[in-house]
Amino acid sequence: MQAFIDIQKLNLHYRTLHALKDITLQIQDKAITAFIGPSGCGKSTLLRSLNRMNDRIPGTRIEGRVAIGGTDIYSPDIHIETLRQKVGMVFQSPNPLPKSIYDNVAYGPRLHGIRSKAKLDEIVERSLRSAALWDEVKDVLKRSAFSLSGGQQQRLCIARSLAVDPQILLMDEATASLDPKSTAKIEELVQELKNRYTIVMVTHNMQQAARVSDRTVFFLNGEIVEAADTRYMFSEPQDSRTQDYVQGRFG
Ligand SMILES: Nc1ncnc2c1ncn2[C@@H]1O[C@H](COP(=O)(O)OP(=O)(O)OP(=O)(O)O)[C@@H](O)[C@H]1O
User: Fold this and answer.
1) How far apart are the C-alpha atoms of 227 and 215, rounded to whole Å?
2) Distance from the alpha carbon of residue 148 to the mean position of ligand 1, in angstroms
3) Cα of 36 to ligand 1 centre, how many Å?
4) What residue numbers bound the domain in which 204 lies?
5) Predicted structure pTM score
6) Could you tell me if 214 and 46 are in contact, meaning their C-beta atoms sit under 8 angstroms apart?
7) Pocket residues for ligand 1 (CB within 6 Å)?
8) First to last CA, the chain
9) Which segments does the entry list as coiled coil (predicted)?
10) Residue bearing the CA closest to ligand 1, atom 25
């Protein structure tokens, strides 16, 4: 598999806190990479560095290089909105807009200038199908997104990300607020999506990382301890700290 995201010597400070320390990591295309590690070790910070969400946080200083498909995303000529279109993000709690199901999915494409109803209808259907939600909502597209269950709302948020045709999907503990059935549905969906997208997920749930991901990266105190194929990470970790963590000795 080919490295699609190339991170070299990335350091990030939140004012005086050195949150990411010399991170060098290659993330493969069309695969699922899971970030694991105890609370506060920098997983979400690194995830947010991949679509420059940290830029919004005052006092943040970032050094090093993040290239996506060979382009340095921190170079001054990068257009942030274009970057965020290519690198979609799904958060811990579903955050649909206070609009209809249809309008949630059509929101991004409309923002990008698509006006044709036929084209929008096509994008909405395709995105909802890709997010495994179409069959459940096709007859109630005008209903408020808030009328959906939490798991359906999260799949709607995935559909909303997919509607603008991203290359990468970042998921920050996207199943943490869901029940086991909805979680299983999203895990199944993510497995399908990896054929078309590069997926990077932060998870607190080691079983989830083991079930779903191809590669796993273990973080501790802002550093990468180990990055490996998931099956090796859980069966033959190379570092004793990884071993202790995956065996539940701390966390
Ligand atoms: N906006 C922020 N401003 C200041 N410090 C922050 C900010 N966000 C995170 N931090 C700090 O940076 C460190 C890394 O946080 P981060 O959220 O990346 O860790 P995490 O591994 O994702 O944790 P969790 O699993 O609890 O979400 C922590 O010490 C955290 O308190």
Assistant:
1) 7
2) 30
3) 13
4) 29-44+80-246
5) 0.95
6) no
7) 14, 17, 19, 37, 39-45, 57, 202, 204
8) 31
9) none
10) 39
